[in-house]
């Protein structure tokens, strides 16, 4: 999604000279509208990417199905539905996807959920410098990512920095997954915000500078100050490395405790409703928390890094379970956030058991009655 009524279509071709053009319309086989974009490519050591095309189309009507084809127009016809103008709206949420059989199962379950927007808190392809795996990941997710908007942020597996050989971080991620950062006043594709159907959603970067005085910190502070809670009563934040985590995996990492120390006060003062994270390959839901204690005015923290990665599940939890941790389970799955209206939303976590989407955890969430 780009702004209130536009969508960015991204695709890759092997052949050079293919036009960065999308033709689209509201009826199958009929494309009265057309838009042009730009084509880029990148190198990663010996790897040369295909032609990466990015085209922004619109203005688009809300809650409408559009049919489109991409240059050179020998492509199949795709279609997507724009999000609704207001409530209700449904989000699919999943982190640490990878490219395993579990990933395929997770994507299959998500495809049946009739979601409006996908939120992905980092660790997409698990290419880990093997650039061909970015291409195979694109083919794997294409049936879903061509059908609904995917809004993502980066994780540690997107860094792909190798001393001497490739000194730049996030080369592949930034080239392939271009997010609308400029529209929110950000100067980096690694952190941005957007608004959709009554929600303000902030995507933070766990693996770029986040300390007080950093560009990301200053941007976040300014972005929070601009929010109109009458227009967007719900405020959601996405990170990769969780700030709250009772799993034994990924304890003591600076990306978690350093970012929490720097930014938790900002999120609390802004009355953020939910903070989603990935990184830990398991599911965990906390109560509303601030400064490690239950607080009715703090955000609900949810770890959803169980999409299906090749590293397996993080199956060991700290014992005893902290009082602020409400539900935790080491299973692959995905989450769904149904925002019903300005005050009520339902969150559910669906684990992948026996190839069936089992609803294992569900709660109703209400906006806290705390003074802003």
TrEMBL record:
Q: Which organism is it from?
A: Solanum verrucosum
Task: Kindly give the Pfam families that the UniProt entry links to this protein.
Answer: Metallophos (PF00149), Metallophos_C (PF14008), Pur_ac_phosph_N (PF16656)
Q: Any idea of its EC number? A: 3.1.3.2
Segments forming domain Purple acid phosphatase C-terminal: 298-358
* Matching PANTHER family: ACID PHOSPHATASE RELATED, PURPLE ACID PHOSPHATASE
Swiss-Prot/TrEMBL keywords: Glycoprotein, Hydrolase, Signal, Zinc
Cofactor requirement: Fe cation; Zn(2+)
The name under which this protein is listed is Purple acid phosphatase
Q: Which InterPro entries match?
A: Calcineurin-like_PHP (IPR004843), Metallo-depent_PP-like (IPR029052), MPP_PAP (IPR041792), PAPs-like (IPR039331), PAPs_C (IPR025733), PAPs_N (IPR015914), Purple_acid_Pase-like_N (IPR008963)
Kindly state which reaction or reactions the protein catalyses: a phosphate monoester + H2O = an alcohol + phosphate
Q: In this protein, which residues make up the domain named Purple acid phosphatase N-terminal?
A: 4-82
The Calcineurin-like phosphoesterase domain, residue ranges: 89-283
């Amino acid at each position: 999604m780009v702004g209130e009524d536009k969508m960015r279509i991204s695709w890759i071709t092997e052949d050079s000279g293919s036009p960065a053009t999308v033709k689209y319309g509201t009826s199958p086989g009929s494309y009265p509208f057309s838009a042009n974009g730009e084509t880029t490519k990148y190198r990663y050591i010996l790897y040369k990417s295909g032609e990466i095309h990015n085209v922004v189309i619109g203005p688009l009507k809300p809650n409408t199905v559009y049919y489109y084809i991409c240059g050179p127009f020998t492509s199949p016809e795709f279609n997507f539905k724009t999000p609704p103008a207001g409530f209700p709206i449904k989000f699919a949420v999943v982190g640490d996807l990878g490219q395993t059989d579990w990933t395929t199962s997770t994507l299959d379950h998500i495809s049946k959920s009739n979601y409006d927007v996908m939120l992905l808190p980092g660790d997409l392809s698990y290419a880990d410098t093997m650039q061909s795996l970015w291409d195979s990941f694109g083919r794997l997710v294409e049936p879903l990512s061509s059908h609904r908007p995917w809004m993502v942020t980066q994780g540690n597996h997107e860094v792909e920095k190798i001393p001497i050989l490739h000194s730049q971080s996030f080369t592949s991620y930034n080239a392939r997954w271009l997010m609308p950062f400029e529209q929110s006043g950000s100067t980096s594709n690694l952190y941005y915000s957007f608004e959709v159907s009554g929600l303000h959603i902030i995507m933070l970067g766990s693996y770029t500078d986040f300390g007080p005085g950093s560009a990301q910190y200053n941007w976040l502070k300014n972005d929070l100050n601009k929010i109109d809670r009458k227009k967007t009563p719900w405020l959601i934040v996405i990170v990769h490395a969780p700030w709250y985590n009772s799993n034994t995996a990924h304890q003591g990492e600076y990306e978690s405790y350093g970012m929490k120390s720097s930014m938790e006060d900002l999120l609390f003062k802004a009355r953020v409703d939910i903070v989603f994270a990935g990184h830990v390959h398991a599911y965990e839901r906390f109560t509303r928390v601030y400064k490690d204690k239950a607080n009715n005015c703090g955000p609900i923290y949810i770890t959803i890094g169980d999409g299906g990665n090749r590293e397996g599940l993080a199956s060991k939890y700290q014992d005893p379970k902290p009082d602020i941790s409400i539900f935790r389970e080491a299973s692959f799955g995905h989450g769904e956030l149904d925002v019903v209206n300005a005050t009520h939303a339902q969150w559910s976590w669906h684990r992948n058991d026996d190839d069936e989407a089992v609803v294992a955890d569900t709660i109703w969430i209400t906006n806290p009655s705390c003074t802003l």
